[in-house]
Structure prediction request, 251 residues.
Amino acid sequence: MIDNRLVIIPIVILAGLGLILVANIYSAPAPGGTGALQKTAVSLQDTPTIAINQSIALPEPDHSTAKTLDDVLLNRRSGRQYQNSALTLPQVSKILWAGQGITNKTTGKRTAPSAMATYPLTLYLAAHNITGLPQGVYAYQPAGHSLVMYEDGAGMSALLQAEGQNSALTAPATIFIVANYTPFAQFGNDMALQSTSIEAGHVAQNVLLMATELNLGGVPMTGYNATSVENALSLDKNHHAIYTIAFGVSQ
Ligand SMILES: Cc1cc2nc3c(=O)[nH]c(=O)nc-3n(C[C@H](O)[C@H](O)[C@H](O)COP(=O)(O)O)c2cc1C
Prediction:
């Protein structure tokens, strides 16, 4: 008779080592980079902040582009290293619109499909270096195409440190996709996880393709401690930080 502990304990140890390996792969410094230096790269600017809950209108997205869908599909690639240059509000406007913008004002339907049109995702923008936007964390409001300040610059810094990957720490902007499980309460957490994860995939691909159209680099990430990020965002138990996307001008 085999003692169950002889089987279970090695499996638990191996699973733990696997998780540590995945976390280390994604937090390792890029070739030629100095991880220790990049880890301290969240730089707080000395700019006036705006009030929590204050709303900022985004410029209307400019939909004129010479690029085709084939062009952007051919060129999308994960980019993890960014120049130390600011993004502009028109760029951020187009990227957020691509993720969750409203495309039919009558129905309220959006760029990305949604299970039962429940729209359970919120995009939080960590604005690290965006011209005309004080550093902070902002919630994107599809209705009105605006941002509402959620956390100040210190909160943004804490959030990026909680995410922890060099890409997020050094990017001028990072989107945190937060899922609300409440609309799926009657179907259970498995269904909530499945639907919101699939939706986040749609949103992230839209964001990454728009970044490519704008000649920016971006990377989607799940290799972070979700509890730390959720605490930094002060989320309740029905909300989960399921995906992040850093983007900026690639080096
Ligand atoms: C669900 C998912 C999670 C990912 N998590 C991370 C991550 O935590 N950190 C990272 O640097 N890249 C992450 N990536 C990016 C992949 O490493 C990348 O897509 C893959 O190497 C293919 O390269 P490409 O995106 O340039 O085509 C993730 C990609 C996906 C789809």
User: Anything to note?
Assistant: Residues 2 and 60 are 66 Å apart (CA to CA).
